[in-house]
Each structure stands twice: as C-alpha cells, then as structure tokens.
Specification:
The chain has 2 domains: 8-102, Udp-n-acetylmuramoylalanyl-d-glutamate--2,6- Diaminopimelate Ligase, Chain: A, domain 1, CATH 3.40.1390.10; 105-318, 3 Solenoid (UDP N-Acetylglucosamine Acyltransferase, domain 1). The strands form 6 sheets. The protein has a 12-stranded mixed β-sheet with strand order 8-11-14-17-20-25-28-31-34-37-39-40. It has 4 helices and 40 strands. Strand 5, helix 2 (52-57) and strand 6 (62-65) form a beta-alpha-beta unit. By secondary structure, it is an alpha/beta fold. Helix content is 17%, strand content 28%.
C-alpha cells in the first residue's frame, strides 16, 4: 500500500468517516496494512473473531474495530470503534488510494490519443496514450480514460468514472457516475443472436445497447453484450468480478454482486441485492427475485421467486434441502452394502430348508 505524503491524525479520520475514538491517542497514520504486517504508523482493521489472535499480536498504530472485539487489541493501540469495521475500513481505503496516487490528479489528452472533434468532454478529463474517443461521445467531468481504451460513437461516460487500460465501450452504450471498469472488458459486444434456417444460421442484428448505472465496478476481461432490441441493464451499485459473461437483454438489479466466471444467459433477470457465487450459471429468460444467494458452481435452471440461499446443479433447491440431500449421498455406499446384504439374505431364505434361524441343519 502506498504511503500518504503527509501523516493524518486518527481523530481527523473520525471527523471524515465517523466512529468513536478509543485506546491510545493521538495516533498519526500514514499507511494501511494487515494486522500481521502493520507498524506504528499504520491503520488496520479487525472485523471477525477468528482474527482475534492476530489482533493480540499486532503492532499497528491503530485498528478499526467493533466494540465487542475492542478488548482483543494490545495496550497502547489506538482504535476507531464502529459497527461494521470492514465496510468502514473500505471507505477509508478508497480515500487513502485517491490521495496516495498521483494518477488521480492527471488531466489532459495524451498526444497519441484520438479524440473526435464531435465528442463532448467535461472538465478535468484524462485521455491516455493511444485511446480513442469517437464522434458524439459524451464524457463527464473527472473521467479517466486510460491507455488504449476505445469509446464508440454516441457512448456516454458519467462523471468520476475510471476506465483502466484497454477497456472498450462500444457505440451508444452508457456508464453512470463513479464507475470503475478494469482492463480488457468489453461493453456493448454483439449478443449471441442467430436464427436457424435450413441448416445454417442467420445473424440477428443486435440493435439495443448497454446501460450501466452509478457506482458500478466491473472486473477485468468481462463481456457485457448489447441487447437485441431493448438494452442490457446493470443497475446502480452492482459489483462484477473478473471473467463474467452477461448476455443480451439481461437485467441486474441494484447492489447485486457476481463473482468470477459467472455466466448469465440472454434475457435473464436478476433482482436487487443478490449474490451469485463464482462459476455459477443462470439459464436464459429466468427470473431471480431480490435477496437471493446462489452458491459457487451452481446452475440455475428455473426461476427463483423466494429470497434465500440456493445451491446445486440438478435440481436447484433451497440450500438447506441440498445439504440434507448431500448428506444422504455420502451415506449411499453404506446403504448399498446393507441392501446387498438384505438381498442375499432373501435369496438364502428362498433356497434354504425353511429351518428357523436358531435350528441346526439336519444334514439331510
């Protein structure tokens, strides 16, 4: 983690982000670090009881911590006491990153960039080396377009958004404010639309676009396809990991999170505040209601209309039921042996002398 050019007092961080001071004061902070590696001018965080032992040994100057874990900190360590240390630390980390990085202060157009005279650029925009901004594109204030990005005709990028190197935002697609898009992602590629006719495929033009809301973060090498007729939509606050495929006409509700390698087929609808585990697949035209969690590597084959935690491949079912079924599967080898023993006993009974179980065979 880069260091701040100038130290900041812990009390100043509380003034900026809230919380309650505890432990040693004053503490001057210059860097963020883990509990294990932190030193006297570092700020760390403790959010789970399983890290209590690491906290007891930390040499951090201060720790963001919940009240019920405050007693785990060594004497002489400062603290910011909050309800949700992890989220609070994340807000502080974003502030640190912006101030520790000189890149956030860059403005202007690199000499090798190509910016159409018909594009509209806001204030304090940065366009990096070999980037292209096409005709009728609208770029908001404080946007950072890194090297080798491509912005298509009529595309719109909201204020404060950052595009890492080699991002492609194709024609007529829209990103909201304060978004982050990582390298290699393509927004607005053609959806997979083909009609079969007498043994060959006819391409269906993809005439929609992609509309992405505010405060969305998209990982590296994702593909978000434009709609066939209507737009593909990703609402405010969504977070997408790396290597995700979003097909045409998909809609994703506010503040949903998709982990790496998720694939969402065409026209599927995902509600708000959903969490989709890594490698999961969602079939086309299905609907997932708000507040659903899908485990990693699961395959969603039918719509989910009740909030909950879901796991499995065939069939998809509530997680608690899947765990019971999985427990039964683990018992199958023993059950098979018992069934075989019973079958053998039945065959012995059918071919035996009909003597009682305690009667000796006469030998006749």
């Amino acid at each position: 983690m880069r260091r701040l050019a100038n130290e900041i007092d812990l009390a100043e961080l509380v003034a900026l982000f809230g919380g309650e001071l505890a432990g040693r004061q004053p503490v001057r902070i210059r860097r963020l670090a883990s509990l294990a590696s932190a030193q006297a001018d570092d700020l760390s965080f403790l959010s789970a009881a399983r890290h209590r032992s690491a906290a007891t040994r930390t040499q951090a100057g201060a720790v963001v911590v919940s009240r019920d874990l405050l007693d785990a900190l060594p004497p002489g360590v400062g603290a910011i006491v909050v309800e949700n240390p992890y989220a609070h630390f994340a807000r502080i980390a974003r502030w640190f990153e912006a101030r520790a990085s000189q890149r956030s202060n860059r403005v202007g157009i690199h000499p090798t960039a190509t910016v159409s005279s018909e594009a509209k650029l806001g204030a304090r925009v940065f366009v990096g080396a070999h980037a292209v901004v096409s005709a009728d594109a609208i770029i908001g204030d404080d946007v950072m377009i890194e090297a080798q990005c491509f912005i298509g005709d009529g595309a719109q990028i909201g204020a404060g958004t950052r595009l890492h190197p080699a991002v492609r935002v194709l024609d007529d697609c829209t990103l909201g404010e304060r978004c982050i898009v990582h390298s290699g992602t393509v927004i607005g590629s053609d959806g997979f639309g083909f009609a079969q006719d007498q043994g060959h495929w006819e391409k269906i033009p993809q005439l929609g676009a992609v509309r992405i809301g505010n405060d969305v973060e998209i990982g590296a090498n994702c593909t978000i396809d434009r709609g066939a007729l209507d737009d593909t939509e990703i609402d405010d606050g969504c977070k997408l990991d790396n290597l995700i495929q979003i097909a045409h006409n998909v809609r994703i509700g506010k503040h949903s999170a998709l982990a790496g390698c998720v694939g969402v087929a065409g026209s599927a609808v995902i509600g708000s505040r959903c969490m989709i585990g890594g490698g999961a697949g969602i079939l086309g035209h299905l609907q997932i209601c708000d507040d659903v969690v899908v485990s990693a590597m699961s395959l969603v084959t039918r719509s989910i209309r009740k909030p909950g935690f879901y796991t499995g491949v065939f069939p998809m079912m509530p997680n608690a039921g899947w765990e019971r079924a999985a427990a039964t599967v683990r018992q199958l080898p023993g059950l098979r042996d018992r069934v075989r023993a019973l079958e053998q006993a039945m065959r012995n009974a059918e071919t035996g002398s009909n003597l009682g179980p305690d009667e000796p065979d006469s030998g006749e």
